[in-house]
Each structure stands twice: as C-alpha cells, then as structure tokens.
Amino acid sequence: MLGRLWGAVRQRGLCFTLAVLVIGGIGGILFWGGFNWIVESTNKESFCIACHEMEATPYKELKKTIHFKNPAGVTAICSDCHVPKQWIYKMIRKIKASRELYYHFITGKIDTPEKFEKHRLEMAKLVWATMKATDSRECRNCHSMDSMDFAKQAPRARTQHEDSLKTGETCIDCHKGIAHKDVSKEAEKMEEKAQPESFDIQ
Amino acid sequence: MKTLDGKWIVPLALAAGLLVASGPARAIDWSGVQGKDIIVFYPGQSSWEWLLTESDHSGAPKFRGGKNCVDCHEGEQKKIGDLIASGKKLEPNPIPGKPGWLTVNVKAAHDGEKMYFRLEWAGGPPSGQKMDKDFEEKATVMIDDGQVKEMTRGGCWGACHDDAIGMPSAPAGSKITKYIPESRSKLTRQGGGENYKPQADLDAMVKGGEFLEYWQGRLNKDKPAVAVDGYILDKRHTNDPPATAAEGGFEGDKWVVVLSRPLKASGPGQKDIVPGKTYTLGFAIHDDYTEHRFHYVSLATTMVLDSGAAEIVAVKK
To answer: Which of B72, B157, B183, B195 would you mutate first to test chain A, the one with the most A CBs within 10 A?
Structure first.
C-alpha cells in the first residue's frame, strides 16, 4: 500500500519535475531569445539613427566615408564599431549606453547639431580612449593584421603596419576621424603636441 | 712697365686656380651614364618645425623615433605635391594650374678631377607670374656628407624653417634664408629666429664641415646658364666667385643643366667628394620664374662615387 502511494508521488514528482523542466526550458529559450532579440534590435542602424542626434550628424558623416560605401559593398554600421561582439562586453556597453538615454530624454545635451559640435571633442576623446583601452577590438572584428597583405599596401601603410606589430600601437593611434569628422588635430592642439619643447632629433 | 707687387702673387694665383677650377665643364659622355628619375614635389609651407609637430604632421612621433621622411613618403610624392599645390593644405597662396610635382632625370659622374650632375626636366605650364624676373628656371643640388643629421634624416627640410621668407612664422620684412638647426641655440615652433650660436661656434662648424653645400644652375632660354653656389649654416652663404660651373639651357622640350665642381674642396664651405663615403643629396627645381619656397623639392637621396649601396652611383667617365 505504502509502496504504491510512494510510487504515485514519485510519478507525480517526476511529472512535475519534467513539467517544470519543459516549461522552464521553453520559457527560458523564449526569454533568452527575446532578450537577445531586443539587444540585437538596439544594435541595428535604424535604432541608432532613430535619435535625431545620431541621424543629423554622425550618421551623415559616416555616409561620406569608405566605411559606408565602397567598391566591395561591405558596410559598417554604428554598432560594428561602437558595440563589442563578445556578450559580456556587449552587455557592459549596453548598460553604459543607458546614460545616453538620460542625455537624450532628460537633458537634451546634444539635441541640436550646434550642441553636438560643442561636445564633439569630448565625445571623440571618450571613444578614442575606449578603443585604445581595448586594443581597437571592434576594428579588429573586420580588420585582421594576420590577414593583411603588407606587400600590396602603399609604402607608408606597409611601414606603419609592420611597425605596429613591434611597437604595440593599435588601430586608433593612427586612424582617428576616419568615419566621422576628424577632430584629432583639435585635440592635439590642446596638448603639448602643438608646441613641442624640442626640435632636436636623434 | 709696371710689375706686380709680390704680395699680389698668392691671391692672383688662387683666383686663377679658382677660375680654372670653375671654368667650363669638360664634356662628359652622358650616353653611357644611367639616369635616375626623381620626383620633386611642391612642399608649400612644410617647415622643419611643422614636420616635428604632431598636431600638424601626424608622422612627427615616427620621425622623432628614427624614421626618415623617405621611409613613409617614398611613392607618395605625387599625391602630396598635388594636395599642397591645390591649396588644400600647407599653401595659402596656390598658383593656379601649378602641377604638384615634376620628374627630374638625374645623372651623376666624375672624371677623377671633378664631380658632375646632369639634371633634365620639363617645367610646368607658365602661370604668367614672374617672382624671379631674371631666371626662368633654377636647378639646385644640396649636398651633405653625413655631418648634418637633419639632412640625412629629412633632406632639404633640415634647412627649411618656419621663419624663413614666405613661411608662416616669418617676421614682416624678414630676409631669413635657409639655415640648419645646429646654427641656433634654440628652436621653437616658429623657428630659430635670432637665436644664433656664437660666431666662434659657427666658425668651428664651417671648419669641421658641419654645413650643407648647394650648387645651383640658373637658366633662361637662349642665354648661358649662371652658376651660384655656397653653403648653408646660420644662413645661406654664397661663394663669390662660385666654385661650381653650370652649363645648359632649354634643349628641345626640356631643360638640361650640368653642374660641376672639383671633387676636392677649394675653400671653406665646400666638402671633399671622395670614394667610399655616402652623400645625402636633395634636388630642387624652381620652375616658371618662381623663387624662395615656391619650388619643387625631392626627398633625401643618397650617392656614392664609383660603387656602393646608394640610390645614385656617380660613375667615373
């Protein structure tokens, strides 16, 4: 009698467990898929330029560059350069991006081209610092030093790229302002780079 | 009959020697000498100080770190020249229609006595302006024997400064010509200005060969070429009379000039040209009656006599 009862409970428990597993699994997949769908939706170009701050200035600038239009038809959209591919870094970036929503909805910090221009250098420096800190990780999603055919590059590019392998320089060290208005000179003019202490050479 | 005072004998002998030395060049058979096409390009206001300032020239850290101009810019001369001549960069007063670059065919030879350079080029289209009212074309060779590191590293830019005539930091009415950084106690972004080293130091530099030598041929159609030469230290010094001879003019559809000078230095401000030594050369063309900075300049190139590892080998003829 007791054995039968125990068997029934076990069977129900098993069913319950199975039910939880199945429902949880499906729910999890749906949740995970939904979460990723939302995250990936925020990576789309249409999402980024839905805000007029992005559409009016940086996107218009991007459209004039080789990263947008080129003979090979390979296009980089905003997230290709500004959002990491790796999940954990992507999540960190998304959390940080919530600050941008604050500026967009609450303060309107860059909601006109004039305001954008006023803060351009400050924003550019942040992006450069991030790229420098990550060894230009997002650039390297598409551009691999291992796949570069140095022999087919222009002499200067060849020299610089070969050197960078020895010196540890990273893409953004040289390639600032290639997808948006270049303000690297303005940045340098505010530093010692504009008035060197010495003009002696080795 | 008057006789010469004994005290005049030495100076007269020296003058006669100089005249013989700088006289018409012995004809060299250039047909057997291999020429090298060198691109000279329009530099605008790119000074020594400009190229060492990172906010102006992104290659400045590389240059300071040991890269020479040619290491990055060889092959880019035409593109750079076109950009600058167009007025988009480094040229506030572009000359309409000015090409960004020219090709100069350079041949070098010696006969054991003299050094010869033969330069051949087609000038650009006439602009109608005559900055230099006397000469239509000028061809210059700058020479160093490794004594001036700025020349080794940066060619003629080692002598081109931000405060020179026509350059951005030139004081009003300034007549500052070319000079080398070692002639000044301090350089700033605006150049070396009046920060001259003491005359005794400059004299020692001349004695020690720490200067750049230049040979120039000034040309007109249907007139004999005129030679001008000297050295660059605290300023551009001109030899009077010149030790260099210049022959040439407009031949067919091209300008040709042969510059020559005894291999052995005949006075201060000249360098001995000897086998076994590597020389740094820079070439410049002032075409279409231009003067000062409105010229075309080459990147630094190297030369040896007879044989060796250099871009130009001056063969014995």
So the answer is: B72
